[in-house]
Design a protein that fits this description.
The complex is a heterotrimer of chains A (473), B (333) and C (265). By secondary structure, chain A is an alpha+beta fold. Chain A has helices spanning 8-18, 27-31, 40-43, 56-69, 121-128, 147-153, 160-163, 198-202, 236-248, 261-271, 293-309, 321-332, 334-341, 357-371, 398-418, 434-440, 443-456, and strands at 23-24, 49-51, 73-76, 93-96, 103-107, 112-116, 133-134, 170-176, 182-186, 211-218, 220-221, 225-233, 255-260, 282-290, 312-318, 345-347, 350-351, 378-380, 385-386, 389-391. Helices cover 37% and strands 19% of the residues of chain A. Chain C is of the alpha/beta class. Helices cover 29% and strands 30% of the residues of chain C. Chain C contains six helices and 15 strands. Chain C has helices at 36-52, 67-76, 94-108, 128-136, 190-198, 244-261, and strands at 2-7, 9-11, 17-19, 24-26, 32-34, 55-61, 80-84, 113-117, 140-150, 154-161, 164-171, 174-178, 203-204, 224-229, 238-242. In chain C, β3 and β4 form a beta hairpin. In chain C, α2 packs across α5 (190-198) and α3 packs across α4 (128-136). The chains are: A alpha+beta (473), B alpha/beta (333), C alpha/beta (265). Chains in contact: A-B, A-C, B-C. The interface between B and C is large, with 97 and 86 residues.
């Protein structure tokens, strides 16, 4: 694809649209916008100019300018993505929504909130907490991500078992289309079959179908009580087999995290944690929430009993801050612990039907042995989304790693596909998994996606080169 | 006016530095009330020169209870002796060090003589008119400073954080009285016996009394990397500390832990690397004179408290810093 | 072996906020947990019981809500919990608290060992443990990092001091305050939680415990808080970025100058 360079005249024109302080071209400042949470050396790319508009009209003008001049635009949230979706791989204009971070309306009658998409998602919850309300769309407490990024990636996270993913909570949005038109999709409506559901098409499209500038999100009642269970099993199969049993009983846990033996062992050794992990082949970490502590503890107890009846070796209960921190820190430190072993890794995001999780574990062992690398497997058992991670063997050279990584990934994805799974559950395709998606997707389905992209973005300027490549002349 | 007392500490006949820090505190209080300052020492085999040094460092009188049975700190006997002295001499106030022995002895004595005790004070003063001892201490993780007094009980007692004051320079012209007292047999409680003493094989150090502490946290990544900090500490004759994260991971033993669930340090210089600065950790270092922090995250809490902060990769910064300090030492000589 | 463990419920410290107006802690929204340093005492007590049999009793002075802390200790493996609760106890300093706890311990009955945390992370005094030993007139060892030997009559412990470990031998009953090195606290199990839920935790008042009223609560406390101040937390120090090789060198230049200026090298 050939794009035109961002000339000094165009930078001037951008300054005219958004004001001089919202445009910058110096390398040092732009560096932060050249990568996300993926490996910058491998995937990073500098933009030619960064703009930080403050209104939807400004964004519309910028997009129209980009169409006129054939310059690519890369929309960006907080830059915490894990697939390279916000990296300006063709240079051009990097458009950050960071200055559009206002809450516009809190509608208690409909339990909805409307905000600009540059708002830090976590801040929404601190704003509405006092009113006893809660935004469950992406309730990961340790993140700095923006609402806009969550929509672009249809973010999931650890609590999707109970609360679902971002898409479930987006009621309406204001979108600047790839042609620069401003459209409003959806509404404060529980039901809506008035034509195609374009809003859901935009959610998870990784910024390729336009820039979402405003969103109306659904709120729920704030859970104030929680209890956690750490359940030890002899085998991964025992652990996974319990998942549907729990789901069938009515109380859906907020989280059902799975950790295989290697993950637990590495994290516990790193933390010097004295849990009796040596005997466990796998663990489940369950969180149960609600509004009444006593009830939540009883629910947790009932779930704990189910686990014991279904082959658990031991169930630990954490219903206060100290013990909850302790068991969650095992889960949270898995990635960190492996970074100490070897900082070079490929964090994967496969998703399979829940019942297929036990079948994938021996496959991981096989791939791990074949390529002499470690593949810890942990993730969201409740929704089948597993962060199997390829960890480079510290004894191998980088060249060797570059050689085997794609081979190992291909095998992993093939196994995933054979089990009815897909290659990304919540991190997205971006640039990182583009070629693998191509290999794993039905060509007819891919053609449909491309047709949509062409219809929406005929000049191919909106976040080009993400998810799939388009050949246009 | 009755006297101000300080409790001197000795180890194997040698006075501990904290004994002199207490005297510089006590001197101010005694002068304000126009009374005498007395240092009480329980021990054995302490030389005359050492006793004289207590005078040179500010004491007007020294009560030395000299007996081999007082050589090692055993709380029951030491408390009996001190309580007996209190009943006999009725001091106005008593300052002891917030050390392992001071923090054990004083609460025991407080019950025996029925008076109040304030732990781990960082400031002391005398209230005008009432002559109440105003005892100020950090509370709730150093977030507040509470001033406490003991209005209706006597003596008024406090333990004082080591290193929170500088000793007075020795003034050899000072003169004072040294009173040697016999240990009364009935005060000896022989239920508890010290049957041995174990030092850690490697670098057992008292981080609370160190002039320079070099500490590492989670950002050190693994135990081997503490070699960098060990080298750095050597340049300052400093000792190694660690955050709770690092101790929990088993990288350094518990005696090195700094913070709310470990030790509180007040060194002249505190250098830390790879410590983000939880509230609990900051509580343990707030009273340091100078704080230097090296951390990758420029928003880390630790920089709020640092006098000098370097935002950078500690694995790049510290080896270079060690080289520079090495070169500095050579040039300096 | 009968063991008594006095514990304290403390605010979880990373969440503590202060009311600037009144100078008191904002309790609302702050979660309470067992004093983290008490967990080591609880674990050590449970291990002794597992080894020698007997009973572990936890007790705490506090409001009715402190029952939760006792139940958590029972869930870990303690046998009984006793709440010492009375409005009259409010405002107690370490002197009055150690009196109150020692009176309660006398009521609990025969014991071989009292184990306590080194100190509580909120008050941070470490005075209550030694105070209880003084009231009860039993041998005391503070900062205990290890139990070397124990039998029905005597115990040998290692006590962490500034320059090493004192090894102390003493007859039982005795009181030990323990440090982190002594144990790795276990997590409560589902079985433990269930047991804790059905275990009755009696609440004892001043009258139940035969208290001398002038020794308890605010009135019985020799020390009085007269002023609360807020120390300046930030120092506003210099912050330099060490990016790239040159950046690192420049940062170190500045640091060396700082150390020189402050006469630290």
């Amino acid at each position: 694809m050939r794009y035109n360079p961002v000339t000094a005249e165009i930078v001037e024109e951008l300054r005219g649209i958004v004001g001089a302080k919202n445009v910058f071209v110096d390398e040092e400042k732009m560096e932060a916008y050249s990568h996300d949470e993926t490996n910058a050396e491998e995937y990073g790319h500098m933009p030619e100019v960064v703009v930080t508009p403050t209104t939807v009209e400004e964004i519309s003008k910028i997009v129209k300018l980009a169409n006129r001049e054939l310059i690519p635009i890369t929309p960006r949230g907080a830059g915490s993505g894990l697939s390279g979706g916000a990296i300006p791989i063709f240079g051009g204009v990097l458009l950050s929504v960071e200055k559009m971070n206002k809450v516009l309306d809190i509608d208690y009658g409909n339990m909805m909130l409307t905000a600009e998409t540059g708002i830090v998602t976590n801040e929404i919850n601190s704003l509405i907490k006092e009113k006893g309300l809660f935004y469950a769309g992406y309730p990961m407490s340790l993140e700095t991500c923006y609402l806009g990024g969550n929509i672009a990636e249809n973010a999931g996270g650890g609590r999707a078992v109970k609360y679902g993913v971002t898409g479930r909570y987006i009621m309406a949005m204001e979108l600047v289309t790839p042609k620069g038109e401003i459209v409003n999709l959806g509404g404060k409506l529980s039901k809506d079959v008035t034509g195609y559901d374009l809003k859901q098409l935009v959610i998870g499209s990784e910024g390729t179908l336009g820039i979402v500038t405003k969103a109306t999100i659904k709120l729920t009642g704030l859970p104030t009580a929680k209890s956690n269970l750490l359940v030890l099993y002899k085998t991964p199969k025992d652990a996974i087999d319990t998942v549907p049993v729990i789901m069938a009983k009515g109380t859906i846990p907020t989280s059902m995290e799975f950790m295989d033996k290697l993950s637990v062992k590495t994290a516990c050794e790193y933390l010097n944690e004295s849990l009796p992990y040596q005997d466990a082949g796998a663990m489940l970490l369950l969180e149960i929430d609600g509004t009444n502590q006593e009830q939540v503890e009883l629910d947790a107890e009932a779930i704990g009993d189910l686990c014991m009846d279904n082959g658990a070796i031991e169930v630990y209960v954490a219903d206060n801050y100290t013990t909850q921190e302790r068991i969650w820190s095992v889960r949270r430190n898995i990635a960190e612990a492996f970074k100490v072993v070897s900082p070079i890794q490929s964090l994967e995001d496969i998703v399979v039907p829940i019942s297929a999780i036990p079948d994938i574990i021996p496959e991981l062992d096989r791939i791990s042995e074949k390529y002499d690398i470690k593949i810890p497997c942990y993730g969201h058992a409740g929704d089948g989304n597993l962060h199997a991670t390829l960890v480079k063997n510290p004894d191998h050279t980088m060249d060797h790693w570059h050689e085997i990584e794609p081979l190992a990934l291909r095998e992993l994805y093939e196994v995933t596909k054979n089990l009815g799974g897909k290659i990304s559950g919540e991190h997205g395709i971006g640039i990182k998994r583009k070629k693998y998606m191509l290999e794993n997707m039905d060509p007819a389905e891919l053609d449909l996606m491309k047709a949509i992209k062409v219809a929406w973005d005929p000049n191919y300027i909106m976040n080009p080169g993400k998810i799939f490549d388009l050949e246009l002349e | 006016m009755s006297y101000v007392w300080t409790i001197a500490e000795q180890s194997k006949g040698k006075l501990r530095e904290v004994s002199f820090e207490l005297l510089s505190r006590g001197r101010k209080l005694a002068d304000k009330m126009d009374t005498k300052l007395c240092s009480v020492l329980m021990g054995s085999n302490v030389s005359d020169e050492a006793l004289q040094e207590l005078i040179h460092r500010g004491a007007d009188e020294v009560y030395f209870i000299d007996d081999p049975r007082l050589e090692n700190f055993i709380v029951e006997t030491h408390s009996n002796v001190l309580s007996d002295l209190i009943k006999q001499y009725q001091p106005h106030s008593i300052l002891a060090a917030a050390t392992s022995s001071g923090r054990t002895l004083m609460p025991y004595v407080a019950i025996q003589v029925s008076t109040g005790l304030t732990a781990d004070c960082t400031e002391l003063d005398i209230e005008d008119g009432t002559f109440h001892l105003l005892q100020t201490r950090p509370a709730i993780g150093g977030n507040i400073m509470a001033t406490i007094k003991t209005p209706n009980h006597s003596p008024q007692m406090a333990t004082v954080r080591p290193k929170s004051s500088r000793p007075l320079a020795a003034d050899t012209s000072r003169e004072g009285k040294i009173v040697r007292l016999e240990l009364k047999d009935e005060l000896v409680d022989d239920r508890v016996k010290m049957v041995g003493f174990r030092k850690d094989v490697e670098e057992f150090v008292n981080i609370e009394e160190a002039e320079v502490v070099v500490a590492g946290g989670k950002g050190m990544k693994k135990v081997e990397n503490f070699a960098l900090l060990r080298d750095l500490a050597k340049h300052f004759d400093g000792v190694l500390g660690a955050s709770r994260d690092a101790v929990d991971r088993g990288w350094l033993p518990y005696p090195h832990q700094i913070g709310l669930s470990g030790k509180t340090v007040s060194p002249k210089l505190y250098i830390c690397a790879g410590i983000s600065g939880s509230i609990q950790h900051l509580a343990g270092i707030k009273t340091s004179e100078f704080i230097v922090a090296i951390n990758q995250d420029q928003d880390a809490n630790i920089f709020q408290l640092a006098d000098f902060g370097i935002v950078g990769n500690l694995f790049e910064v510290i080896p270079k810093l060690n080289e520079r300090l090495e070169a500095y030492k050579k040039e300096g000589k | 072996m009968n063991i008594i463990i006095p514990i304290k419920q403390v605010p979880e410290t990373s969440n503590v906020k202060m009311d600037k107006e009144t100078g008191t802690m904002i309790r609302e929204g702050v979660v309470s947990v067992i004093n983290p340093l008490d967990l080591y005492a609880i674990e050590a007590g449970i291990q002794l019981k597992e080894q020698f049999g007997g009973k572990v009793t936890v007790c705490t002075m506090g409001p009715q809500t402190a029952t939760k802390a006792l139940k958590e200790a029972i869930a870990m493996g303690c046998d009984e919990g006793i709440l010492i609760s009375d409005r009259k106890f409010a405002g107690a300093d370490t002197w009055a608290t150690s009196y109150t706890l020692s009176q309660a311990i006398k009521t609990i009955g025969e014991y071989d060992l009292i184990l306590a945390g080194e100190r509580a992370t909120d008050g941070d005094t470490g005075q209550v443990g030694p105070g209880i030993a003084a009231w009860l007139g039993i041998p005391l060892a503070t900062y205990v990092s290890k139990i070397d030997e124990i039998n029905n009559e005597a115990i040998t412990v290692e006590r962490l001091v500034e320059d090493g470990y004192q090894i102390l031998e003493m007859p039982l009953p005795a009181l030990l305050t323990v440090v982190k090195e002594i144990s790795n606290p276990r997590l409560p199990t589902l079985r433990g939680k269930k047991k804790a839920r059905v275990t009755e935790v009696p609440s004892l008042s001043a009258a139940d415990l035969n208290m001398e009223e002038s020794y308890i609560g605010l009135k019985g406390s020799p020390t009085k808080v007269v002023k609360i101040g807020y120390p300046k937390v930030t120092r506003g120090g210099k912050l330099v970025k060490a990016l790239g090789e040159e950046g690192v060198n420049e940062a170190i230049d500045e640091l060396m100058k700082f150390l020189e200026d402050k006469e630290l090298i």
